[in-house]
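Thread: 3-deoxy-manno-octulosonate cytidylyltransferase, structure

OP (GT): Posting the sequence first so everyone is looking at the same thing. Length is 243 residues per the record. Can we get the structure tokens written out before standup tomorrow? I want them in the notebook alongside the other entries.
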Amino acid sequence: MIIIPARLKSTRFPNKVLIPIGGIPMVIRVAKIAQEVDRVVVATDEEAVREVCKDYGFEAILTAKNHESGTDRMAECARILGLAEDEMIINLQGDEPFIEKEVIQSLKNLMAKKAKESGELPFMGSCAKAISKEEAKDCNLVKVVVNAANEALYFSRSPIPYDREDKIANSTNSYWGHLGIYAFSGKSLQEFCKLPKSTLEEIEKLEQLRALEYGKCIIIAKVKSKSFGIDTPEDLKKIEKYL
């Protein structure tokens, strides 16, 4: 199951989920990619978004308007749908119109592999791609460092690891950019949303840090991707270049 949270009144870029990309609303473009991997449901707070989804043949669920994050919206959607505790649920952001189906499949496969090894799905999973040293300086591009088992150690808007002696070449796989996709079990999704906000989460404005600060494991699938999120109106220039 893939749930796409689609809030219409984004703070930095209102109505962005409905802007046309190649003649197709952004959230629909994401849904079309996702449906090649699994069942897709859009979780939205506006009837206008649900109507657009309906026009394109996608299921959409109306959720409360007061959710603080897409994960909270997704959790409500999962409850409405009555999803089981052991079901894998992938959270795919509605502002990732160029996410490759292979990326989604890689995360799904990794979660399934870990579940087969341990008998249950990991608490949380996500994806990362190699980025350049220059890209790592962009505070809008979240970085992640992982351990030898590809479990996340930390996420940050700052370049991590810090290259103290300037030894990292621009072409090495020393910096990993985080992609806006998460996987949970039905149980861990609800548990995550019940955890109090953490100090690190509030400082960096990265909700995945809540899981790490409370000692939860986030496994990372390292993937190849040209995908990028649409966070601000300025990102529309990237779209023109990509297309």
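GT: Both are above now. Quick notes for whoever picks this up: The mean pLDDT is 92. The chain has one domain: 2-242.
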